[in-house]
Design brief:
This protein has 397 residues and is mainly alpha-helical. The protein folds into two domains: 7-91 and 174-206 and 221-252, no CATH class; 93-173 and 256-329, Metalloproteases ("zincins"), catalytic domain (Zincin-like, 2-Layer Sandwich). The protein has 13 helices and four strands. The chain has helices at residues 7-43, 49-90, 101-114, 147-152, 155-171, 173-200, 216-252, 257-270, 273-283, 294-297, 318-329, 345-356, 364-369, and strands at 93-94, 120-124, 131-134, 142-146. The protein has a four-stranded mixed β-sheet, with helices on both faces. Strand 3 and strand 4 (142-146) form a beta hairpin. It starts with 6 loop residues before the first helix and ends in a 28-residue tail after the last helix.
Length: 397
């Protein structure tokens, strides 16, 4: 079960990353071809299906250089600015040792223990309990945790979560996750653009003016052309949906096993399987980041899914992850955990009042002027003016 430093897993992730990048270009070409079909129908709706297909293929050949440059530009933007885009969505901010000494020291100790380069540390203001790693190269790697996680997990549990995210970085999972986000973003952008153009652009089937003076032969030709246009538009919509479906398949390429491997890597780093289990139990069903996109949630420690959507989930359930840690790492499962309760302000005030109250039957004034007890005190010392201790370690009077 130990996964930290598995070179075969790292190599497989790198291979998948290259394949996903190649797949990005393929999906863009499919979208361009679908857009060319719709454009040909808009320009002339009285041709046959074969004529539309040939014309769209010719348009695709002409557009290939521009589509390729556009895809490469998109990848370049994502490569250099992916972390800024993620921070803009989540509101994460970089913190220093002075701002978060507890969190910074925990992460630094883990990195030093295994000779791992220290990633950037970020905190996002959210009551949710979650964390994620991101970045495409060592200079960009960062770990983001929520303020809710810091408030509700103890040091051992936070250390386990940090070890989980460090394992994702070491195994190359974060690269594949960011690439999947890039691909999903491309498909989503162009798909929405085509559908807006189609449904909100006043697109109408049929071509011909079809007045009352039209002959029966021309009306028949118009009907044939209109039916061909309908078939081509349906084909274009199917291609766009196919591209979207393939982008979801790319997300599923983020194998669920990577979470098991990251949990195991955390245990190997911290030598504490119970901390990883209790952290998962506290995070369970409390990790939904308000306002975060599905692409960001898929990078988190836990991405809760229920019902039919669980079929497309990139994370296994907390139950199965805990069961694996119990079976293979010897951990103990405490079951679902409640978050620690915080004392009310009224309770804190009551505690303060009890500490200031004098002992029963005592004199408050005497308590204030009472001399220090013990073998070094002087009973004849005036109560209002304590005498300092003589000798080499005391203050002379």
């Amino acid at each position: 079960m130990a996964a930290y430093g598995l070179y075969t897993h790292i190599a497989a992730n790198r291979t998948r990353s290259v394949v996903l990048l190649i797949g990005l270009f393929g999906l863009i070409y499919v979208l361009v071809y679908a857009g060319a079909l719709i454009a040909e129908v808009v320009l002339d709706s009285e041709r046959s299906v074969g004529e539309y297909l040939n014309a769209a293929a010719a348009d695709l050949v002409k557009a290939l250089p521009f589509a390729t440059i556009g895809a490469a530009l998109w990848i370049a933007i994502a490569y250099f600015f992916n972390q800024k885009l993620i921070d803009a969505v989540t509101g994460g901010r970089t913190v220093t040792r002075q701002e978060q000494p507890r969190l910074y020291n925990l992460l630094e100790n883990l990195c030093i223990s295994r000779g791992i380069a220290m990633p950037k540390l970020k905190v996002m203001d959210s009551e949710a309990l979650n964390a994620f790693a991101s970045g495409l190269n060592p200079r960009q790697y960062s770990i983001t945790v929520t303020s809710g996680l810091l408030a509700n997990l103890d040091d051992h549990e936070i250390e386990a979560v940090l070890g989980h995210e460090l394992t994702h970085i070491r195994n190359g999972d974060v690269q594949m996750m960011v690439i999947a986000v890039i691909i999903a973003g491309v498909v989503g952008f162009f798909g929405e653009m085509f559908f807006r153009m189609f449904f909100q652009g006043g697109f109408r089937f049929g071509g011909g003016s079809g007045g009352s003076s039209s002959s029966s032969s021309s009306s028949s030709s118009d009907r044939k052309g209109g039916s061909g246009a309908i078939v081509v538009v349906i084909l274009a919509v199917v291609l766009i949906l196919l591209a979207w479906f393939l982008s979801q398949v790319v997300k599923l390429a983020l194998s669920r096993s990577r979470e098991y491997l990251a949990d195991a890597g955390s245990v190997e780093l911290t030598k504490n399987s119970d901390a990883m289990i209790s952290a998962l139990r506290k995070i369970e069903n409390r990790g939904e980041l308000e306002g975060a996109t599905s692409a960001v949630m898929e990078m988190c420690v836990d991405n809760p899914r229920q019902g039919f959507s669980d079929l497309f989930a990139t994370h296994p359930s907390v139950e199965s992850r805990v069961a694996a840690l119990v079976k293979f790492a010897g951990g103990r499962d405490p079951g679902p955990l409640a978050l620690p309760t915080k004392p009310d302000a009224s309770d804190a005030a009551a505690d303060d009042s009890t500490t200031d109250a004098p002992a029963p039957g005592g004199d408050p004034a005497a308590a204030e002027t009472a001399p220090p007890g013990g073998p070094w005190s002087d009973a004849t010392m005036p109560r209002e003016k304590p005498r300092f201790l003589r000798g080499p370690w005391g203050k002379r009077v």
